Amino acid sequence: MAARSPYFAAEESARGIRPGESPAAALRRILATPGAHQAPCCFDALGARLVERAGFPIGFMGGTRNNSTQDFACSVFLEEAFGFCVSAARLGLPDVGLISYGEMVDQGRLINEAVSIPVIGDGDNGYGNSMNIKRTIKGYINAGFAGIMLEDQVAPKACGHTEGRKVIPRDEAIMHIKAAVDARKESGSDIVIVARTDSRQAISFDEALWRVKAFADAGADVLFIDALASVEEMKAFCAVAPEVPKMANMLEGGGKTPILSPAELEKIGFSLVVYPLSLVGVSMRAMQHYLLFSIQASMQDALVAIKDGGVPPPSILPSFQEIKDTLGFNRYYKEEKQYQVDK
């Protein structure tokens, strides 16, 4: 499938997408090289441009994530976390499944037109059953994404690094990955499929290991277990299907997974590492405490911190609790309880 055309043409020496190369081919090439490749999460075209200008070879667009617990921690690029960023920036609403497939594809198209680096898009749980997943895959391909992350949570979903998550049955989860692979083949695309499981929290660590192995057998290109709780668990994960790249989520400011440097993550066996909250977090902090013109500088400071192997300091990045309060998560939880049905 031909590469999409960003506004600015890629340079021959670019670390991202080279002339005539598809976004997915560029992502596959990068992941095949040594290192734990860093991918800060971006939520709009400006953020994506800043990620590219800072020298990162990959971007991750976080999109939708349901969260029905009080212990919020946002999980691409997204995660997540991923889902938090676009929902926050585009709607100004908590990441509880309110943003739609169409809005995500539209946002992704704008981001991918702005940069010449491959971008992975958070595809949530595919927005439905296997047939919905096939439509989602094709839509993300047409929007110019190099990769898409799909997860196995039930709907409504919970955000990453929280309690109370539930996952769909094993067979259904595997079939979703197979449907994604089929949609890729039908499209003549090489989009990278990142298969995520939330079963570490929902069921057990052993179940998570079983699922990622099954996802690899079904054709997934990158594997991700959310909310790994220790370095030992991270090592055990990377030992599964060793030929398939693994993704780590460095949730800034207090997730369940230990924060490690890219060098440490590479040593364990990770090929891809995402930072979900830095850009949207420092944007909120800048708007709260400084004039609007300082946002870009704060984003750049956050990217420098990541580049140096750390995460943004508390002085420029609000806590998860502050972010949650700002976007109305607690209000959502309170209203949600009014409509819960005892089972």
TrEMBL record:
The keyword DNA repair does not apply. Gene3D superfamilies: Phosphoenolpyruvate-binding domains (3.20.20.60). CDD domains: ICL_PEPM. The keyword Protein transport does not apply. One of its GO terms (biological process) is photosynthesis. InterPro entries: ICL/PEPM, Pyrv/PenolPyrv_kinase-like_dom, Pyrv_kinase-like_dom_sf. Keywords: Photosynthesis. GO terms for molecular function: catalytic activity. PANTHER family: OS04G0386600 PROTEIN, PHOSPHOENOLPYRUVATE CARBOXYLASE. This is Isocitrate lyase. The lineage of its organism: Eukaryota, Viridiplantae, Streptophyta, Embryophyta, Tracheophyta.
